[in-house]
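Chapter summary example.
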Amino acid sequence: MSDEQWADHVEELRGRKRRSQEMGGPERVARQHQQSKLTVRERLDLLFDPGTFVEFGLLAHQQPVRGQQALPPERTPTDGVVTGHGLIDGRQVWTIAYDFTVLAGSMGQVGEQFKAARVRDHALRYRQPIVWLLDSAGARIQEAVGSTFAGAGQLFFD
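The structure predicted for these 158 residues follows.
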């Protein structure tokens, strides 16, 4: 692959990352601010020591479930949940934080079964705390029908 082709791929990846960090888009961010609410990313910026937050699954998005068509990736950036770890007053802390600007912060299969589960697993393995910022309309019904969320009770056990 040529240098120019690599540069095109890198620029495409940077663009996808930028779009994901824009959350549900400028209109939904403005709506949060009109309600005197911070966005999920603004909350995390205040919570974690500057420059220490490392995000998991930034490019994740909703996937098709049982023959249903998924929404396009730009409608479900990060599948509506920001996950990762960083330092709070110098102490390692994990987080799962729902993004209300994406489908009212509803919980999707990718966000729950892969991103949130990964954070819970790491926090338990390393015996470190989790800060869970829950600003959510609940589970996405179209994804929760049947047994998709049957294992969700494990999070309460954890």
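To summarize the output: The chain has a mean pLDDT of 83.
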